[in-house]
């Protein structure tokens, strides 16, 4: 098992070797090109992201600047959006579902290090991160290695997510905790506001 295979498997590994260096160089080149684009170059931005990531939907939008370790370990679903200053450290797989929204400065970390200083000086490790469909992650949130976030979740801004979050909840804090479930009353409230919006804009 080479170092890249060990890294992706969540085993201890050395962040060196020709394959990892080539993957890192590729990521730096593509993110540099992406971050240098202008607002008139939307097609170029999309093409660069599709080349960078392992898989994407047809629609995705990331506000530059964006940073990642490798890019090729990131999978995003249809309609993914990330605001400014997103960082994804993808030494392990990062799977993001459909219609996921990231506020500014959201960071997703799969990279980790051994607690023992002697081992940490020699080796690194990581754990994958998974985010479900229809998730909204507030700005300045950090999602730590090994976390799984369910579907239809709202993560409050400034959160540090250290443990799994189930479906259909609002969660926030440091460490991030479940605040309350998302209810039928929530759905009805927001759908009523949407109906009012439609009526008001149709009249205008």
From TrEMBL:
Give the EC number. 2.3.1.-
Q: Name one GO molecular function term.
A: galactoside O-acetyltransferase activity
Keywords on record:
Acyltransferase, Repeat, Transferase
**InterPro entries per the record?**
Hexapep (IPR001451), Hexapep_transf_CS (IPR018357), LacA-like (IPR039369), Mac_dom (IPR024688), Trimer_LpxA-like_sf (IPR011004)
Catalytic class of the enzyme: transferase
> Known Gene3D superfamilies for this protein?
Hexapeptide repeat proteins
Q: What is the lineage of its organism?
A: Bacteria, Pseudomonadati, Pseudomonadota, Gammaproteobacteria, Aeromonadales
Residue intervals of the Maltose/galactoside acetyltransferase domain: 4-58
Q: Where are the transmembrane segments?
A: none
Q: A Pfam family in this protein?
A: Hexapep
Q: Which PROSITE patterns match?
A: HEXAPEP_TRANSFERASES (PS00101)
| Family that this chain belongs to | Belongs to the transferase hexapeptide repeat family.
UniProt protein name:
Acetyltransferase
